[in-house]
Each structure stands twice: as structure tokens, then as C-alpha cells.
Design a protein that fits this description.
Blueprint (H helix, E strand, L loop, with lengths): L1 H9 L10 H33 L11 E10 L14 H10 L4 E3 L8 E3 L7 E2 L5 E5 L21 H12 L8 H7 L3 H11 L11 E5 L2 E5 L7 H4 L10 H11 L10 E7 L3 E6 L6 E2 L9 H10 L3 E2 L2 E8 L3 H9 L5 E3 L17 H4 L4 E6 L2 E7 L11 H13 L2 H8 L4 E3 L23 H10 L19 E6 L3 H17 L2 E6 L2 H9 L5 E7 L4 H5 L18 H12 L4 H16 L3 E3 L1 E9 L3 E2 L15 E2 L3
Parallel strand pairs: 1-12, 17-18
Antiparallel strand pairs: 2-3, 4-5, 5-7, 6-7, 8-9, 9-12, 10-11, 13-21, 14-21, 15-19, 15-20, 16-21, 22-23
Helix pairs in contact: 1-2, 12-14, 18-19
Length: about 625
């Protein structure tokens, strides 16, 4: 159509009725030259159109060097790479390298600071605090894929509308539903309509999530929200192309992630190997971050990396190594470049004063230590027929089990002192932590046995406890096949033997246990929750609306829910602290979680890795590192 219009422009019929020969000859000549110019213009425009329809990504856009390979290991298998449907740490770590959110965190700022990523700038926020308007950067392109049919696919505001609507689609069973339900206007209603009709309408003009033009995204909130922007830093809020999901389908999308981030999935052997390569469409950036003035380790990293074009790492190879010994041997043998030192091998890395051993210093190995934004806990399923329920005798049973388990021994023997005993659900490095709060729960086998006696859990002839009705009591706990979990199994058995409770341990793979946990099908299991930006996102673990998502204890308590609603809206201050304390107390008196510890991580990197550090919240941080070539 473009060519036809140009032809009509340059070969327009003459309107003269009479003319002299000379003049007509001159006019004809002018038309001929004009036509030639027109044909040349048509040719140029046609080539430009074809180039747009059949793009070849600019190999110089991403400065990453394919010969710079970063080798890593995960201690737990991934579950998949559909960012809307996964919520485990390791899958999200990969997704963070593939997908590009609107905003992210400054790499070195402490306290943490939000900065634009796919957005041109931080959003414009209305005076009432309920309307967020984002401008998406122009010229960001998805990794080339067959789903785009040879066209170069630009990231637009509509891709962010689409990914947020995917969370509302009940078919996807998004773990983030409770967050968006509460925060985004009309989100809950659209999800309920989909449940009623049996199909989600992706073509609707959603009242709370919409694009006003190709690059402008508007999100309407139910009310002002202190933590909403932190949600948008996650890969689950990054733009997704609808045509990709429609081409590869529900299951196919889990293994075919395509985004606008720095990397693309090159190879995936489930539970064994994940390989990423540089996305040729990612434009890159200059390493230009300011380190905290009072931190010499961070200052050294900043001085080393300042001014480099990033990313430099062109290939990321991730191995799944579940056994700590194998993990440590892989690092020692330089098969992987970095390692979070397994607790059972901490003595082979550090002195008793937690300094790096000279044998590693001599090899040029660098150390990075930090208190982690995590919490480990043992959950107890409120719907389990043996330990679940809210009757006094069931509550007493759970509280006795929790009091009977020796957390101090776990930290001392299994964690090798590389952890801090948890007094509350919120880690010491997460906003909302209360340094003055002390848990009611104390390790006391004597008190635990007395509680069991009081509520009718008598012992049989062999010394094992029975239910108050005389039936045998068997406490079933799930556990992975890792060596550290085997050590914990032994400690649990030792602890339960003190109480006369027969323990049964079931072993399964991590992804399978996650699925069962969401179905409230696991009686008890030890989990960790990490990298939450604020207390709200930790406390939702026991919110009734997250049953089937993150509330593996399947805990439902009206008082807890009411406190959680207050928590989301209150500003920092004494009242918010009091609400958190009340939530902790409800968790303790009901025996819902047995809190364990917060990690102290020791990470080592070989000399070839430059700029290595860890951000408390960012995942997929390989874009900030460099690798020395051999």
C-alpha cells in the first residue's frame, strides 16, 4: 500500500489541455526525473520496511563477551521459568536475568534505593497516592523468537498490562494474587469474574491496569500503599509478550522464558544444568555506582569496576549440586567460580574468628560476608489430621513439639555458628524488624513433656505418646535428600525421643514438596523465606488469603488477618510495631511456625571474578560482575 501511494504521488496524471511542444517536452522531462527520484525513495523505504519485518539484532548492542563464562551452582533444583507461576528463590534468580522490570534497586546504595530500569524514570504519583503513571523506555526489544514471526519485537506498556493480568487469571494460580488483590483497583473483581465465567478476558480495559498509549502504563491502587513499588522490582512484574505465552502454551511457557533482560535461556536440563547466554538485544549500561563511604570492602569493589561497560559476562552456567561436599569440592577444584560456603565446610574456609584462611588468601580468593534477609522455620499444617486444628489439645501438641526442638544445637552443630537465632519472623536486615522483641518460645523438654501430660498425651508401654483417645501418635515430617536435611532429621529424632513422640520422616524432591505444600498436603516441613523488601511480605506467610500460595501452614485466623490489614496501611511507628508484636504472639501461641534462624552467609569468589558482592534484595546480579580472561 505504501508503494502504491508513492506511485500515485510521482506519476500523477497531467491536467494541461494544450501545450507547446517545447513546454510539454520540458514538463515530461521533469516528470521523468521526479519519477526516478520517487523510485529510489520507494526502494529505500521498502528496504527499511523489510529490515523492520526481518530484523537482525545488532551484535554490538550488548557488550557481553561470550568468552567470559561465570560458573555457579544452586543447592536446590529450579521449578521452572514462568515468572507469574513460580515463587522459589532459584527459579526467580534465573528469571531475574531474563526479564526486565520497570524499576530495580541501585546496586550499592544502603539503605536500599529504588531506581528506574525499563521505565524512563520513577513513576508520577497522583496527589492522593493512588495512581502511578510509568513511561516505558523506547527501544527495548525482546530476544528474537519464532513467536514474533521474524519481526523485531519492542517492549511496550501493553506487555506490563498483560503480565499483571496474568496474575489475575485463576488458571495461573499466581503466588502473588494476595498482594495484587489488596493493592490494585479492580484486580480481585476481574479474578472473581474469571472464576464465574471460566475464562479470563485479556482484551478487557481493566480499571486498575491499562495503557494510555504505546509507552504509558497507568496503575490505579485501592488506596495509598507504602510497599507497592517494591513489588514491581520482581521478575514476576516484568513485561511479557502475549504472543509468546499463546504460542508455547501453559506448560511450554514454563520452559521457554523470553524477555528483554540481559540474558536468554540457552539450555535447560531440568534439575541438573541451566545455561544462559547474552541477549543480543540488550543495550547494556556503564558501571557507575557509589559505595557507602564507611565500608572499605564496597569501596574496593566500586574502585575496581567504575566506568566499565556492562554486562561483561557473556555466558552463565549453573549446575545443580545438592550435596554440600560436592559443592565445596567443585569450588575448591575451580569447577565453579563462586560459592556460598556450606555450613559443614565453614571450618575449611574461615578461622575461628571468621577470617579467611591464609591458604585461600594466597590463591587470591575473595570473601563477602553478610547477614541474610532470610528466615528459616518449620511449619505445621493446620489442616493435618494429626497435628492440625485449633482445639486446645492440638495447640498444646504443636507447642510441645516446638519447645522440644533444640534450635541452639542446630545453629552450633549443623550451621557451625553461621546463623542468628530467630526471635521473630522478620530478619534483622529487613525493614520492620523489631530489635527489642523476644519470643515466648523457649527450648524446654521439661515444659514440653509437662504440657503433653496435661493435655492427655499419655505414653504406651514402649514409652511413645498416644493421642488423648488412645490411638498411636505419629508425627510426620517432610524433608529433602540433602545432607544438611539428613543432619536435621537426626536432631529432630533426638528431640522427639525426649518427648516420647514417634517421628516419621518422608523424603521427596524440593519442587514436588512445593506443589504438595500449596495443596495443604504436607504435615510439617522446614522452609526458608528470603529477600522480602519489608515486614509486610514476610507476615503474609500466615495470612489466610495466601493459603494455596505461600501459606504452607494453611493457617486461618481472623485476628491475624485483621492485624495484617492494619500492618499494610500503618506508617512506621509505635502502633505498627505493636501490630507486628501481636502477630508474632498469635503465631507463637497457636504453634504455627517453629522459628529457627537467619543465615550469616560467607561467599567466596575466585580471583578471576571481579566486582563480586551480594545485594540484599536483587537476584540475577551477574550483569554487575566481570570475568578475567585466562
Amino acid at each position: 500500500m505504501l508503494n502504491q501511494a508513492l506511485l500515485r504521488l510521482f506519476f500523477k496524471p497531467e491536467t494541461f489541455v494544450t501545450c507547446s511542444g517545447v513546454f510539454c517536452l520540458q514538463r515530461t522531462a521533469v516528470n521523468f526525473l521526479t519519477a526516478i527520484r520517487g523510485l529510489m525513495l520507494i526502494a529505500c523505504l521498502t528496504l527499511a520496511y523489510q529490515a523492520q519485518a526481518n530484523p537482525v539484532p545488532n551484535p554490538k548492542a550488548n557488550p557481553a563477551d561470550p568468552n567470559k563464562v561465570l560458573r555457579l551452582a544452586f543447592p536446590v533444583p529450579e521449578t521452572g521459568f514462568d515468572p507469574v507461576r513460580v515463587n522459589d528463590l532459584y527459579s526467580n534468580t534465573i528469571n531475574a536475568g531474563i526479564f526486565q522490570p520497570l524499576i530495580t534497586y541501585d546496586w550499592m546504595a544502603m539503605p536500599t534505593k529504588l531506581v528506574p530500569d525499563a521505565a524512563e524514570a520513577m513513576p508520577e504519583i497522583s496527589k492522593d497516592g493512588k495512581t502511578y503513571t510509568f513511561k516505558v523506555k523506547k527501544g527495548l526489544f525482546f530476544t528474537p523468537d519464532d513467536a514474533f514471526k521474524g519481526h523485531r519485537r519492542e517492549l511496550t506498556a501493553h506487555d506490563f498490562v498483560y503480565v499483571l493480568l496474568r496474575h489475575a487469571d485463576p488458571k495461573n494460580r499466581s503466588p502473588q494474587v494476595s498482594d495484587f488483590d489488596d493493592k490494585i483497583f479492580g484486580f480481585a473483581d476481574s479474578r472473581k469474574q474469571a472464576v464465574a465465567s471460566g475464562k479470563f478476558d485479556y482484551d478487557q480495559r481493566h480499571p486498575g491496569i491499562y495503557a494510555t498509549d504505546r509507552y504509558t502504563l497507568v496503575i490505579q491502587l485501592n488506596q495509598p500503599d507504602r510497599n507497592f513499588l517494591t513489588l514491581l522490582t520482581n521478575p514476576f512484574a516484568a513485561g511479557m509478550a502475549r504472543e509468546l505465552v499463546e504460542k508455547y502454551g501453559f506448560e511450554g511457557t514454563m520452559g521457554h522464558p523470553v524477555g528483554t533482560g540481559p540474558y536468554v535461556l540457552d539450555k535447560w536440563v531440568r534439575g541438573s544444568k541451566i545455561i544462559l547466554k547474552a541477549n543480543p538485544e540488550y543495550a547494556g549500561f556503564v558501571w557507575n555506582f557509589e559505595a557507602p563511604a564507611n565500608n572499605p570492602v564496597e569501596q574496593r569493589i566500586a574502585n575496581q569496576m567504575q566506568g566499565r561497560k556492562m554486562p561483561q559476562v557473556g555466558r552463565v552456567e549453573v549446575s545443580i549440586i545438592e550435596e554440600p561436599q560436592s559443592m565445596w569440592l567443585a569450588f575448591s577444584g575451580k569447577e565453579i567460580d563462586v560459592v556460598a560456603v556450606p555450613p559443614s565446610f565453614i571450618e575449611k574456609a574461615l578461622t575461628p574468628k571468621n577470617d579467611l584462611l591464609q591458604t585461600w588468601v594466597a590463591q587470591g580468593v575473595n570473601m563477602y560476608r553478610s547477614v541474610e534477609p532470610d528466615i528459616r522455620y518449620q511449619f505445621f499444617n493446620m489442616r493435618d489430621p494429626v497435628i492440625g486444628g485449633y482445639t486446645p489439645e492440638k495447640v498444646a501438641l504443636r507447642r510441645a513439639i516446638i519447645m522440644g526442638y533444640d534450635i541452639d544445637e542446630e545453629i552450633r552443630v549443623i550451621r557451625k555458628g553461621q546463623a542468628v537465632k530467630a526471635q521473630q519472623m522478620v530478619s534483622p536486615v529487613i525493614a520492620g524488624h523489631d530489635p527489642n522483641y523476644k519470643s515466648l518460645v523457649k527450648f524446654s523438654p521439661l515444659s514440653a513433656n509437662a504440657l503433653l501430660d496435661q493435655f492427655g498425651y499419655k505414653k504406651d508401654a514402649k514409652g511413645f505418646r498416644m493421642h488423648p483417645d488412645g490411638k498411636p501418635l505419629i508425627f510426620t515430617m517432610y524433608s529433602s535428600t540433602s545432607s544438611i536435611d539428613r543432619e536435621r532429621d537426626e536432631l529432630w529424632k533426638k528431640s522427639m525421643d525426649r518427648l516420647g513422640i514417634k517421628l516419621k520422616v518422608k523424603k521427596d524432591k524440593f519442587p514436588e514438596m512445593l506443589k504438595q505444600g500449596k495443596q495443604c498436603a504436607i504435615p510439617s516441613w522446614s522452609l526458608g523465606w528470603t529477600r522480602s523488601a519489608e515486614a509486610e511480605f514476610v507476615m503474609k506467610l500466615l495470612y489466610s488469603k495466601t493459603v494455596g500460595q505461600n501459606n504452607y501452614a494453611c493457617f486461618e485466623n481472623a485476628d491475624y488477618d485483621a492485624y495484617f490489614e492494619q500492618l499494610k496501611r500503618l506508617p512506621d511507628g509505635p502502633e505498627r510495631t505493636r501490630v507486628l508484636q501481636n502477630m508474632y504472639r498469635l503465631m507463637e501461641v497457636n504453634g504455627v511456625l517453629g522459628l529457627s534462624s537467619t543465615s550469616i552467609a560467607t561467599r567466596l569468589s575466585h580471583q578471576n571474578v571481579e566486582g563480586y558482592r551480594k545485594h540484599p534484595l536483587l537476584l540475577g546480579d551477574w550483569i554487575y560482575y566481570d570475568i578475567q580472561k585466562p
